Amino acid sequence: MTTYIIRRLIMMIPILFGISVISFAIMYAAPGKPTVMDLDPDISVEAREAQMERLGLNDPPHIQYINWMSNVVKGDFGTSFTKKQPVRDMIADRLPNTLILMIFSTILAIIVAIPFGVLSATKQYSKLDYGVTMTSFLGLATPNFWLGLMLIMLFSVQLGWTPVGGVSTLGADFSLLDRLHHLILPAIVLATADMAGLTRYTRSSMLEVVKQDYIRTARAKGFRESTVIYKHGLRNGLIPIITIFGLMLPTFIGGSVIVEQLFSWPGIGKLFIDATFERDYPVIMAITMFGAVLTVIGNLIADILYAVLDPRIEY
Amino acid sequence: MSTLLQVKNLKTHFFSKNKVLPVVDGVDFEVKKGETLAIVGESGSGKSITSLSIMGLVPKPGGKTVDGEIIFDGTDLLQLSENEMFKVRGNEIAMIFQEPMTSLNPVLTIGEQITEVLIYHKKMSKKEARQKAVELLKIVGFARAEEILDDYPHRLSGGMRQRVMIAMAMSCDPKLLIADEPTTALDVTVQAQILELMKELSEKFDSSIILITHDLGVVAELADRVIVMYGGQVVEETGIVELFDNPLHPYSKGLLGSVPKLDEEKERLSSIGGNVPSPDNFPKGCRFVTRCEHAMEKCLTEQPELKEIYPGRKSRCFLHDEGGNE
Ligand SMILES: Nc1ncnc2c1ncn2[C@@H]1O[C@H](COP(=O)(O)OP(=O)(O)OP(=O)(O)O)[C@@H](O)[C@H]1O
Ligand code: SF4
Ligand SMILES: [Mg+2]
Question: Where is the ABC transporter domain (chain B) (predicted)?
């Protein structure tokens, strides 16, 4: 198992390298120049040139890439063009906010999706099943930004139950309740699509499981339906879901870009949007690589969990 | 011998949108204490659904036992609440299935799957249950039972898994064991061992067995009495010797004719032409009429009843009324 994990970690290196090349190329080919150039309309042509030269933007793209990469392997992600701060610090500042949002919405997605998926499967074709199915399709089809806007309109503007944005009340002392209060709406929005997808996966996985012979054996032992489903069924049904879950991990990053923007949530996603508008190359590359690492790690975690849950898999 | 189980006029039907399938349609039989009753019949004759009806595990949605009585040890199981049935299943009536490869839960160890029954029904502690599980595994023929306990099913062969299933079924010392084609999926050599084991255990534990099988060789080996099923009904009920010597019902005769005899040059695997009618178009009269070489006018329109022809021998055929059953 350990050698397997080590092998997989080594295999990540070329994958991440490939992703970095492609991302760099796409970013470079995209129209627009770093806005740091346009900040002051009075800036002289010479000064601008000097700035370009200083940031290395006049070098040919492959040289720029090599310079960037040689710093990255040393753990240096460069300095933000616009904020003049080290990118690493900027990310480190915002990562906790994003992680809190991700973890909270993940937990939310799981605790809603799994029970409803199981119920939907065990009561196939019941009213409850149709209700859950309808709701999850709605959840899948609703765009995050629209749902977010609607929830803000309703709960923040109309009812005034939740704050409009941010992680905490400005100027107030730290309070868990205040944090949760700010967290709840963005977490719900971020969780919606995955919750819906996870419910569907759980349902179809459990539908497959309840047809299996070992479920009949468990019933023949005299167990109550809850034992049959949760002890004998769910353990099996979760195996494919865990895999999908690992693969879903990076989608939270994608989702957080929109949600953080909407709720002015100072996390990685918001940083990414700002950096994209400003063509702040070092920040864009660092966050892209962060997403890439999360993706491959999510895959690895899924595979490891698969092996842990399914005794038939051996490495 | 006293009676352990009495099934009377059992009807289990499947309901779909616009059809009712009378899959088990008025089945009567009884099982005495300590005896092995075989149920034989072609595929689709309702053997499995009959046994699942006794367990109260008719496949849902769609299946439902609509009529009859299943008197087990003095109580009608059909009158019991689901809560009361939980105490019967796996405890007083245990069941093993045809597919040993898939009947064990792949993500739980053998030990967990045996001990959970003991903990649940016999309220044993984990430790006691483990000891008992080792004991049971030894009885069913695992020399190194302690090691098997922590193994997962995928490491065992089909024959070994069926032994585990048997150990699990016998764990609570059930009064009745229902075995639905326990050896069909196994190699011939393994089949013999499993049958031997079942015979041994039924004597040791003094439990009754309902043995469902296609294989008349298995019947001859293990059973005391046999019922022959056709189209969701019992067509003959008789002692084992009598069945082989002198089957009463034309269908039983056909079935016996389809057992290949070793000294016969051509293997005649089926001497009964045609197929079992499916439950959605059972003939109006005798269910066997489409394939019976003795069929009469009356057989097309009227259903024969299961009648005692000789003491302890019943058959469902109009021929017996005519006085000629040979
Ligand atoms: N879930 C179900 N829904 C509808 N019909 C069913 C269902 N299960 C079984 N049947 C029908 O019931 C009839 C009897 O099935 P059963 O499984 O009892 O036959 P069997 O005698 O055990 O056959 P085999 O020897 O193949 O196991 C068959 O015609 C089958 O198609
Ligand atoms: S009742 Fe008629 S059709 Fe049915 S088995 Fe007897 S002779 Fe054949
Ligand atoms: Mg069957």
Answer: 5-256
> Which residues, 6 or more positions from A263, have their beta carbon under 8 angstroms from its beta carbon?
A148, A152, A164, A165, A166, A185, A186, A189
Residue nearest to atom 3 of ligand 1 (CA): B14
The answer to whether A105 and A252 have CB atoms below 8 angstroms apart is yes
State pTM to two decimals: 0.85
Q: Inspect the interface and report whether the beta carbons of B85 and A222 lie closer than 8 Å.
A: yes
- Nearest bound ligand to the CA of residue B287: 2
Task: Work out the minimum CA distance from A84 to partner chain B, whole angstroms.
Answer: 54
Cβ–Cβ contact B168 with A under 8 A? yes
How many angstroms separate the alpha carbon of residue B45 from the centre of ligand 2? Answer: 17
Ligand 2 pocket member B288 (CB < 6 A): yes
Which of A213, A221, A311 shows the shortest C-beta gap to B107?
Answer: A311
Q: Looking at ligand 2, which residue's alpha carbon is closest to its atom 5?
A: B317
Interior angle at CA B13, CA B15 and CA B296, nearest 5: 120
Would you kindly state where each structural domain of chain A is located, as residue ranges? 17-73, 102-309
Q: Which amino acid is at A12?
A: M
Torsions phi, psi of B78, nearest 5?
-70, -20
Q: Which of B:37-56 have CB within 8 Å of A?
A: 55
Cross-chain CB nearest to A309 (options B87, B103, B107): B107
Q: What share of chain B is helix, strand, coil (3-state, %, to 5)?
A: 35, 25, 40
Alpha-carbon distance A304 to B257, whole Å?
57
pLDDT per residue as tens, chain B (326 positions): 789 999 999 999 999 888 899 999 999 999 999 999 999 998 889 999 999 999 999 998 889 999 999 999 999 999 999 999 999 999 999 999 988 889 999 999 999 999 999 999 999 999 999 999 999 999 998 989 899 999 999 999 999 999 999 999 999 999 999 999 998 888 888 888 888 898 888 888 889 999 999 888 888 888 999 999 999 999 999 999 999 988 999 999 988 876 555 444 443 434 577 777 888 888 988 999 998 888 888 899 999 999 999 998 999 999 988 765 44
**Top mutation candidate among B45, B184, B255 for ligand 1, by most atoms within 8 Å of CB:** B45
Contact B60, B29 (CB under 8 A): no
Where exactly are the structural domains of chain B? 3-92+172-322, 106-171
- Any idea what the Cα angle at residue B101 is, between residues B100 and B107, rounded to 5°? 110
Question: Which CATH class for the B3-92+172-322 domain?
Answer: alpha beta
CATH of domain A102-309: 1.10.3720.10
- Residues B199/B34, Cβ–Cβ less than 8 Å: no
Which chain A residue has the Cα nearest residue B174?
A221
